[in-house]
Design goal:
It comes from Cladocopium goreaui. The protein has 27 helices and 27 strands. The protein is of the alpha+beta class and 813 residues long. The protein has a domain of 188 residues. The strands form 6 sheets. The chain has an 11-stranded mixed β-sheet, covered by helices on one side. Helix 2 packs across helix 6, helix 5 crosses helix 8 and helix 20 packs across helix 23. The chain is globular.
C-alpha cells in the first residue's frame, strides 16, 4: 500500500474514532442531564415551608397518595408533586393565558401573545389573588412555595428546557399563576363564543329574520333534556322571503362557489364536525344501582396532548378539629384543588355547560372625542394599558390595550365599530378558590351551594352522596341579566342590557333527587322554562349524544360501575343511521348507472356496522357525506353573510342539523343551490366529492376505514415544533374507535375523553379512573405513557391508588 495513502487512512480513522468519542461524550452528558431532571421519588428531603412531615406515596402507575397533617402542608406537597412531574406543562398553561409564550419560544408566539394580552389576565390574576381571604391566601402561598420547592429539587431543569435553547430557564411560580391556569381553561371552554356571537350578529344583519330563525333553531327532535320537552323548530321560509333560484341569487352563488370551492375545503368541512370542548357526565341514584349507592360517571372531552391535562392524586389530611379527610380524583397541575372525584361522602363530575356567559358589546364612539365612548352615564375615556411582550432572541413588542367599563376592546366589526367582550372570566367573581370547599362536603345539598359559589368556567355539576341521592346544578358564577337575547352584538349605551350582579346560590337552577333516579348531561340543554332562561343558550350541543346516554341509562335497572364504562365506550352511530338510510336510498339504479365508485360505496354502506369502529369504511363515508351536505346547503343559504364578512362561518354548527335534514328530505326548490338542478344532484355531488377526496391517498375504497382517518395524533408541544422528536415524545399512532360527535364515545386523533371515571362515594374501591398518556411529563419516566394502553382500550384502572411502590417523605427544617 502506498505509504501516503496509508497515513491518510490512519488520520481518517483517528478522526472517526475521535468523532465517535466526542459524540459519545456529548451524548452521555446530554443523557445524564436528562436523567438528572427525573424527580426523586424515594427517600427523604428536608425542606422549608411545611410544619410536619408529609409523605408522597406513588403506586405502580405513579399515582400519588399525599398524606399530610394539615391542609396547608398538603397544598405545599401537592405543588411539590405537580412541579416534579408536570412543571413544563404548568409553565405553558400560565404563559398561554398571560400572553407570555414569546418569552420562552420566540417570535412564533407573538401574534398569540398579542391576542391574549387583550384580556390582561396577569393583571386580573394578581388582583384576584389579593382579594382572597387570609386562609385561602395562605393555602395558595403554600402551594406556590411547594411548586418552587419541587422545581428546585430537580438536579437539572426539566428536559423540555434542555431541548429548547440554551437560555431557556423555568421561571419561578408566582401566587397569581394558579388563576392564570384557570384562565387558560376559560379560553379553551368559552372564548370561542365571542366569534360565534359575532357571526350570529352577521346573520341577523344580512339575512331575513325567518331564515336566521330557521337555521339557528332553539332545538330539534334530538333534544334530550333531563327536565322539559324538545323545543319546537321553525319551518323554512317561503319563496316570497328567500328564493335561491332567481337569476340574482344564482349569480351570487355561482360567483361565491367559484371563489370558495366548497367541496375542496377540508378545513371548512371539519368545522361542521362540531367537536368542541365538552364532556359527558351522569349520575344514577342508589335506588337504581346494584349496590345501593349513587354512582357518578364522567368523561371530559378536551384536546389531548402529551402529557394529558389531568394529574391523578389522592389527598389525605386532618382539619383543625383533628378530623381526617381524604379526596381522590384528578387535579389540574398549577392549581391546588381536586377538580373531579370523591371524598367518601360526595362524588362530583363536570361537563361544559354551554350556557351564555359572554356578551359582545358594540361601542358607540363619542362624536366629540376620539378617545371616548358613550355609556348610560355619558361619555367615558378609554383606559390605556401599555403592554410589553418580551420575545426570546428578538426585540420586545409594545402596544396598548383599551379597556372600558364593560371589558376590553377586542376588535372591530366589518363596519369599523369597536367590539368589547363582557365576559365572566374578566370579572372578579370569575376565579376563586371555593372549589376547595367541595373536598369536605358531606351531602349533595352542601355541594350544590359550594358549586354555586365557585369561580370557574361554568360547568354542569352532577353530584351524588353516600345516601344515594343525586343532583345537578351549575358550578360557576351566573350573572343576573335582563330578558334580552345576549347572543346578538349590540350597543349597551341605553343601559337596557347591563349585567346586574350575580345570582345567589338559592336562585341557581337545580335538579335534586329526580323521581326516576337518573341525571345526564352532554353539553346539550339540560332544562327548560325558567331555568333555561337563567342559563340562556351559548351553543348547546345537538342532543343526540345526551339522548343516547339517556337511553343507555334506562336500559340498565341496577347499574354497576362496569355499566358506566360500557356507556362511555358506546360507539354506536345511532344518530347517523337516518343518514345512512338516506344515502343508500339515494343510490338507486339510475344513480349507479355508469358510476362504479358509487356502486362500491353502496356496498360499503350496506355493511357499515352501525358503529364508529376502526375497521368500518361505511361509517367514514356516511360521516363525511353528512358534513359535506351540511356545508353545501349552509354555504348557499348564507352568501350575503360572506359578502359582508369574508371570514364568516355559520355559528353553532350543531344547530343546522335539523334545518338541513328538513331541506334534503322535503326538498323545497326555492332553497336549492342554483348550481344544481335537483336536490338529489346536490346530494350525489356531495358523495362524489367525498369519494374523490378518499382516493387521494391511493388506497382502494375497501381500505379507507375510519381507523385510517381516526389515528391517534397525541403529541408533545415540542414535537409539533421539532418533528424529529416525535418518536420519543409522542404517543403511538394507533387507530381509535369513537366518533367526533353525536355518540357517547367521542374520539378524534387529537381530542376526546381526557379522562374516564365512575365512582360511588364511600365505595371508591369499586370505581375506576382512566387517563391518556401517564402521570409524568418526563419522557424518560416509567410513568410517561404507562396509563395510555388502558385508556386506548377502555380498560378499567382502579379509582384509588394502589400499593405504594415509591415513598418520598418531606420533612420540615
Amino acid at each position: 500500500m502506498n505509504p501516503k495513502f496509508e497515513r491518510v487512512l490512519k488520520i481518517l480513522g483517528l478522526i472517526a474514532v475521535l468523532t465517535i468519542l466526542v459524540a459519545a461524550i456529548v451524548g452521555g452528558w446530554f443523557y445524564s442531564q436528562l436523567a438528572g431532571s427525573l424527580p426523586q421519588v424515594d427517600g427523604e428531603i428536608v425542606i422549608e415551608g411545611i410544619s410536619a412531615p408529609v409523605s408522597i406515596k406513588r403506586d405502580a402507575l405513579g399515582v400519588p397518595r399525599i398524606e399530610a397533617e394539615n391542609r396547608i402542608d398538603l397544598a405545599f406537597a401537592t405543588g411539590f408533586a405537580h412541579a416534579q412531574d408536570r412543571f413544563f406543562q404548568m409553565d405553558l398553561l400560565r404563559r398561554n393565558s398571560a400572553g407570555e409564550l414569546s418569552e420562552l419560544v420566540g417570535p412564533a408566539a407573538v401574534n398569540h401573545d398579542k391576542e391574549m394580552r387583550l384580556h390582561r389576565f396577569r393583571d386580573r390574576a394578581k388582583a384576584m389573588a389579593e382579594s382572597y381571604d387570609e386562609e385561602q391566601i395562605a393555602l395558595l402561598q403554600a402551594y406556590t412555595d411547594g411548586v418552587n420547592a419541587g422545581l428546585n429539587s430537580l438536579s437539572v431543569k426539566p428536559p423540555e428546557y434542555l431541548f429548547m435553547v440554551l437560555d431557556a430557564e423555568p421561571a419561578p411560580w408566582q401566587i397569581e399563576d394558579s388563576a392564570l391556569i384557570l384562565f387558560s381553561m376559560y379560553l379553551d371552554l368559552q372564548w370561542g363564543d365571542f366569534k360565534q356571537e359575532c357571526r350570529y350578529g352577521v346573520m341577523r344583519d344580512t339575512l331575513p329574520e325567518e331564515l336566521v330563525d330557521f337555521l339557528i333553531p332553539p332545538g330539534s327532535k334530538w333534544d334530550a333534556p333531563v327536565e322539559g320537552d324538545a323545543l319546537p323548530a321553525p319551518t323554512y321560509p317561503g319563496p316570497d322571503i328567500v328564493n335561491l333560484r332567481t337569476q340574482e341569487a344564482e349569480e351570487v352563488v355561482e360567483q361565491t362557489a367559484s371563489n370558495r370551492p366548497v367541496l375542496d375545503e377540508l378545513a371548512e368541512l371539519d368545522y361542521y364536525a362540531a367537536f368542541a370542548p365538552g364532556s359527558n357526565n351522569w349520575a344514577v341514584a342508589g335506588s337504581h344501582s346494584a349496590h345501593g349507592g349513587a354512582i357518578v360517571a364522567d368523561d371530559m372531552h378536551l384536546g389531548i396532548s402529551v402529557p394529558g391535562i389531568w394529574y391523578r392524586a389522592s389527598l389525605s389530611w386532618k382539619d383543625e378539629e383533628g378530623q381526617p379527610h381524604e379526596v381522590t380524583g384528578v387535579t389540574l397541575p398549577g392549581t391546588p384543588a381536586m377538580v373531579v372525584g370523591s371524598n367518601g361522602h360526595v362524588a362530583w363530575a363536570f361537563t361544559n355547560s354551554e350556557g351564555d356567559w359572554l356578551d359582545v358589546v358594540v361601542l358607540e364612539p363619542d362624536p366629540n372625542d376620539d378617545d371616548a365612548y358613550l355609556t348610560p352615564e355619558g361619555s367615558k375615556k378609554f383606559e390605556h394599558h401599555p403592554q410589553v411582550i418580551h420575545v426570546s432572541r428578538s426585540p420586545d413588542e409594545k402596544f396598548e390595550v383599551l379597556e372600558t367599563i364593560w371589558g376590553p376592546v377586542i376588535d372591530t366589526d366589518p363596519d369599523g365599530r369597536r367590539r368589547v367582550a363582557r365576559w365572566v372570566a374578566h370579572d372578579q367573581e370569575g376565579v376563586n378558590l371555593n372549589l376547595l370547599n367541595l373536598e369536605t362536603c358531606k351531602t349533595t345539598d352542601e355541594a350544590l351551594t359550594m358549586a354555586a359559589l365557585s369561580g370557574s368556567p361554568a360547568q354542569n355539576f352532577v353530584v351524588g352522596d353516600d345516601s344515594g341521592k343525586i343532583a345537578w346544578t351549575i358550578l360557576g358564577r351566573i350573572p343576573r341579566r335582563p330578558d334580552i337575547d345576549g347572543r346578538i352584538p349590540a350597543s349597551w349605551t341605553d343601559g337596557k342590557r347591563q349585567w346586574q350582579g350575580w345570582l345567589e346560590p338559592k336562585d341557581y337552577p337545580r335538579i335534586v333527587a329526580p323521581e326516576d333516579g337518573r341525571i345526564w348531561t352532554a353539553n346539550a340543554r339540560v332544562v327548560g322554562g325558567e331555568k333555561l332562561a337563567i342559563l340562556r343558550d351559548g351553543g348547546y350541543d345537538l342532543g343526540a349524544r345526551a339522548g343516547q346516554i339517556r337511553d343507555d341509562l334506562y336500559e340498565v335497572d341496577k347499574a354497576t360501575e362496569a355499566d358506566m364504562l360500557a356507556i362511555q365506550l358506546d360507539d354506536r352511530a345511532v344518530f347517523l343511521s337516518p343518514w345512512q338510510e338516506q344515502l343508500v336510498g339515494l343510490l338507486d339504479e339510475e344513480a349507479l348507472e355508469g358510476q362504479p365508485k358509487r356502486a362500491e360505496a353502496k356496498e360499503q354502506l350496506e355493511k357499515w356496522g352501525d358503529r364508529a369502529a376502526i375497521d368500518s369504511v361505511g361509517y367514514r363515508i356516511v360521516r363525511d357525506y353528512r358534513l359535506r351536505v351540511l356545508q353545501m346547503v349552509c354555504e348557499s343559504l348564507t352568501v350575503p353573510c360572506r359578502e359582508y364578512d369574508s371570514e364568516f362561518k355559520v355559528p353553532w354548527s350543531t344547530k343546522v342539523e335539523g334545518p338541513v335534514w328538513q331541506l334534503i328530505t322535503e326538498q323545497p326548490e326555492h332553497l336549492l343551490d342554483p348550481n344544481y338542478e335537483t336536490w338529489d344532484a346536490l346530494l350525489l355531488a356531495a358523495l362524489d366529492a367525498e369519494l374523490e377526496e378518499l382516493s387521494k391517498n391511493q388506497l382502494p375504497l375497501a381500505q379507507q376505514t375510519w381507523g385510517v382517518y381516526n389515528t391517534a395524533r397525541i403529541q408533545h408541544p415540542l414535537s409539533k415544533a421539532v418533528p424529529a422528536l416525535s418518536r420519543w415524545l409522542d404517543m403511538p399512532a394507533v387507530p381509535l374507535a369513537g366518533g367526533s360527535s353525536n355518540m357517547p364515545r367521542i374520539q378524534r386523533p387529537d381530542s376526546g375523553a381526557s379522562q374516564r371515571m365512575a365512582v360511588s362515594p364511600g365505595r371508591e374501591e369499586e370505581g375506576y379512573m382512566e387517563i391518556p398518556c401517564g402521570q409524568s411529563g418526563h419522557f424518560l419516566s416509567p410513568h410517561y405513557a404507562d396509563s395510555h394502553p388502558a385508556w386506548v382500550e377502555g380498560q378499567q384502572s382502579p379509582f384509588l391508588p394502589g400499593e405504594a411502590v415509591n415513598t418520598l417523605v418531606l420533612k420540615p427544617e
